[in-house]
Design goal:
Layout (H helix, E strand, L loop, with lengths): L5 H8 L2 E4 L8 E2 L10 E3 L12 H6 L4 E4 L1 H14 L5 E4 L3 H18 L3 E6 L4 H13 L4 E3 L9 H8 L6 E5 L7 H9 L3 E4 L7 H4 L2 H8 L1 H5 L5 E5 L14 E5 L5 E6 L5 E5 L2 E7 L4 H16 L6 E3 L9 E5 L3 E5 L6 H14 L4 E6 L8 H15 L3 E5 L13 E5 L2 H11 L5 E5 L7 H13 L17
Parallel strand pairs: 2-3, 3-4, 4-5, 6-8, 6-9, 7-8, 9-10, 10-11, 14-15, 17-21, 18-19, 18-21, 19-20
Antiparallel strand pairs: 1-5, 12-13, 13-14, 16-17
Helix pairs in contact: 1-4, 4-6, 5-11, 12-13, 14-15
């Protein structure tokens, strides 16, 4: 947006100009503490604070300008003048969030007019990893921008769009869903050329009630896409079938699909069949769930006209299956960003398929599962036992239900701190530890404490085996 002056930015946002500015913003932010220079600060009203009160602070920090509600406009302009800000635009909108969303849509269209293609990715689990994989696939052949970390909501997605620089050729956007109408809202902003639904599963049941309702909410992406666009969906998901459109091209991935995994070779190379041809890739990962995500990403890349081949090095977003090697040949799989029954099973598979010795799972509550929460947690305990988890540490009251169906060595804890303390007494050299729960449980504390204890508190001659720890249920 650097070439847009204040008048054009205001017009795109549906705002009015109190103070103008030449040139335009480099991006947008809703946090005055992150201003580094050149951004448009958007003052959003939250449950506890009103961001508009920090508009002057943002201008003093070097923001290009601010977008605020009317009650903050005069104060922002006056404060900027008193602080000696030479050029600081002040734009006014009765609803700054709606203004930012409109501005993001306008910038997306500006990028599209220059040839950029937009991909919108949603799903019950794996959407962030699929986004990371597709961005890496496309980056070898196009100028790519993508949603950073978890910018996937009605606030985060517009910020991701506005951060895309001029000349972007592929914009990969993640779309999160917590209720009915939210994917439709994000689709209306992003206007994707390619839509990807990674999967449909029992997530947010507390809000939506049934898996069928979840499928319908995800399918808002399909409903909002333009005729002639392309959607990528899993072949084995009949719940999406009623939502498919004749005027939107459909590409399937998975078993018996348009894009299939033909072979995973011992040297790490994978052979993918796609529309009668073979694609050979050598990804930097090999987990089964991420290979499925790879198929979705390949399907989307092909829809963009990208021919993926060769090495594929993907840096996944933080707290999503990150592997940390610690002293004593201990490996931590830090997957504590979020959890649901589908992603929990995938993480357990990763643990049990890759651990060379003892398999330890620190599993916390899966939230927002509604009335089936206890049953779904017990099923995870049963699955962990069937897949060969050796030690289970549960965190929280719901996760404690896992122990009812887990036949091996298990321990309940009430919170992340208690789990970290217990794990330190149980851990042995060579263990592989999975740490996973819904974000609200805060299990990143467990991974952090484990790393600190192994790297800084390990005494010479200490086996780390926790010989004095209790054993059994």
């Amino acid at each position: 947006m650097r070439e847009w002056d204040a008048a054009r930015v205001a017009e795109a946002a549906g705002a009015s100009v109190v103070l103008g500015a030449e040139a335009g913003p480099s991006a947008a932010t809703v946090d005055s503490r992150t201003v580094s220079g050149g951004e448009l600060f958007v003052g959003l009203r939250g449950e506890r604070a009103d961001g508009g009160e920090h508009a002057a602070e943002a201008l003093r920090a070097g923001a290009w300008g601010v977008l605020v509600s009317p009650e903050h406009a005069d104060a922002a302009a006056a404060a900027a003048a008193e602080a000696g800000v030479a050029v600081g635009a002040v734009l006014v909108h009765r609803d700054p969030l709606a203004g930012m969303q409109a501005l993001a849509r306008a910038w997306r269209r500006e990028l599209g007019a220059s040839g950029a293609k937009v991909v919108g990715i949603t799903g019950s689990t794996g959407k962030t990893s699929t986004k990371d994989i597709l961005a890496a696939l496309a980056a070898a052949r196009r100028r790519v921008a993508s949603s950073p970390e978890n910018r996937n909501t009605e606030i985060g997605l517009p910020l991701a769009v506005l951060a895309a620089p001029p000349g972007t050729e592929v914009l990969v956007l993640e779309m999160a869903m917590r209720g009915v109408g939210q994917i439709a809202e994000l689709t209306a902003i992003a206007e994707p050329d390619v839509g990807v639904i990674v999967n449909v599963g029992p997530v947010h049941l507390e809000l939506l009630g049934t898996v069928e309702a979840i499928a319908a909410a995800k399918a808002e992406l399909l409903a909002g896409m333009a005729a002639g666009s392309t959607v990528v969906i899993p072949a084995a998901e009949p719940l999406l079938t009623p939502h498919l459109r004749a005027d939107v091209k459909t590409i399937t991935f998975g078993e018996d699909a348009d894009v299939v995994l033909r072979q995973a070779l011992p040297d790490g190379e994978v052979l993918i069949g796609a529309h009668g041809r073979e694609i050979a890739l050598r990804p930097s990962f090999g987990q089964a769930h991420n290979l499925l995500n790879l198929l979705a990403a390949v399907a989307a890349a092909l829809a963009l006209g990208i021919d993926p081949q060769g090495s594929l090095d993907v840096r996944f977003s933080a707290l999503r299956g990150e592997r940390r090697e610690l002293p004593g040949e201990v490996v931590v799989i830090d997957d504590c960003y979020n959890a649901n029954p589908m992603s929990m099973r995938a993480a357990i598979d990763d643990l049990t398929q890759t651990a060379p010795a003892r398999r330890v799972a620190v599993l916390g509550d899966m939230l927002e599962l509604g009335g089936d929460a206890q049953r779904l947690h017990r099923e995870i305990g049963l699955y962990a036992g069937e897949r060969g988890v050796d030690v289970l540490i549960t965190v929280g009251p719901l996760a404690a239900e896992m122990r009812r169906e887990f036949e091996g060595e298990s321990y309940p804890t009430g919170d992340a701190r208690a789990a970290a303390e217990l794990l330190a007494t149980l851990l042995a050299d060579g263990d592989t530890v999975l740490v996973k729960a819904s974000r609200g449980v805060g299990l990143e504390h467990v991974a952090q404490k484990l790393a600190a204890s192994r790297e800084h508190q390990r005494m010479p001659g200490d086996s780390g085996a926790g010989a004095g720890a209790p054993r059994g249920r």
